Amino acid sequence: MNLLSADIEKRYPGGATIRAALDRPTDQFTVTILFGPSGCGKTTLLRCLAGLERPERGSIRYADETWLDASAGVFVPPQRRGIGFLFQDYALFPHMNVAANIAHGLHHSSRSERHRRVAEMLDMLQLAGMERRYPHQLSGGEQQRVALARAIVRRPRLLLLDEPLSALDAPTREQLRRELRRLLSAFAIPCFVVTHDRLEALALGDHLMVLDRGTVRQSGPLGEVFSRPVDAHVAQMVGIETILPARIVRVEKGLATLAIGDGSMQLVAVAPSVPDGDVLVCIRGDDVAIHTGADSGGSARNHLPARVSSIDYEGALVRVTLDCGFRLVATITRQASEELALRVGKEVIARIKATAIHLIIRSITRPAGADGLSSVDQRPGTLSPSSLASSKSRSGDT
């Protein structure tokens, strides 16, 4: 297997230091998401891979080529790396029409070859008939497709996209998430995509690298990272709504009984690799089913009497905060909310499967405040992951 391998350190005088290491395949199509909050180092890492930034330490290798070896003074410039780069603001030339923008990187090709490739891009990206338009005459989505066409018309071996949907309005962004993944799959070029948007990461990615404060906190298959974060901070970053301190009181037949708070509330989860001690309980909102008291059956291990504390509408979804003796967040569809006739103060039953609860082992005591959750460090436990492919509507058994 051919790999893109990097182990770099980029330092900014008086500012942040970015440290990152990665190994990703180059002979198969994958989309690697560089994920994290603004200022965490995502774009810097992308620009280092492109050759637009030069790290002070480390190396970058693509298959058998060395793009960077800081100790040996080796640095291959961007134009010799064979990459396509889609900038956050698209960086289209305002004085050039669509066809000229797309053809800009083909100046070494013959005229007939340029025409052929531009026509191919116009057709594939549904831009036919717009050849003579200028960037200011295009919608945001059309500008994005032109910029993508310009990045791939040279047939790069690696495609780098920096926040490719952030310049679009919300409705257009939602529509283009699906379209962009389809296009990337059609071109079958290994990709790196920078984003801080969880929905964008889920729609586009195969592999997730979570960055924070200049370092990689976790890297792995996208579903695994989203469902099995290694620590509380990553759990917050990937959007797990409920994170609770707990302790394991017993383990039987592979299931751990957990005491929440003073022990008056208990949960059952798949037992972690270290079957005793303190843990953090992580529960995704879409793994919580809400039922009325008259409908409390089902296969879920955890049936929790609860009261609705708040209801927040978020587009097609509803975020319901429950008081179960602890704060629990459920994410359901508007239809499910209406069918349940939810209102603040209503008594309901929250159901959670044992396999949907991820446990993080807590170990080293430290001062509170680093993640706002607890006074301990965490190290990863092992647990059967919950499915990210499940429906957002959880009005049935989980």
SSE inventory with pairings:
Blueprint: E1 3-11, E2 17-25, E3 31-35, H1 42-50, E4 57-62, E5 65-69, E6 74-75, E7 83-86, H2 98-103, H3 111-124, H4 140-152, E8 158-162, H5 170-187, E9 191-195, H6 198-204, E10 207-212, E11 215-221, H7 222-227, H8 232-237, E12 242-252, E13 255-260, E14 265-270, E15 277-283, E16 289-291, E17 302-314, E18 317-323, E19 327-333, H9 334-340, E20 347-352, E21 358-365, E22 376-380
Parallel strand pairs: 3-9, 3-10, 7-8, 8-9
Antiparallel strand pairs: 1-2, 1-4, 4-5, 5-6, 10-11, 12-13, 12-15, 13-14, 15-21, 16-20, 17-18, 17-20, 18-19, 21-22
Structure description:
This protein is α+β, with helices and mostly antiparallel strands and 398 residues long. The chain folds into two domains: 3-224, 3-Layer(aba) Sandwich (Rossmann fold), CATH 3.40.50.300; 233-380, Beta Barrel (OB fold (Dihydrolipoamide Acetyltransferase, E2P)). It is built from nine helices and 22 strands. It has helices spanning 42-50, 98-103, 111-124, 140-152, 170-187, 198-204, 222-227, 232-237, 334-340; strands at 3-11, 17-25, 31-35, 57-62, 65-69, 74-75, 83-86, 158-162, 191-195, 207-212, 215-221, 242-252, 255-260, 265-270, 277-283, 289-291, 302-314, 317-323, 327-333, 347-352, 358-365, 376-380. The protein has a six-stranded mixed beta sheet, with helices on both faces. The protein has a six-stranded antiparallel beta sheet with strand order 14-13-12-15-21-22. Strands 2-1-4-5-6 form a five-stranded antiparallel beta sheet, covered by helices on one side. The protein is globular and about 75 Å long. Residues 364-398 have low confidence and may be disordered.
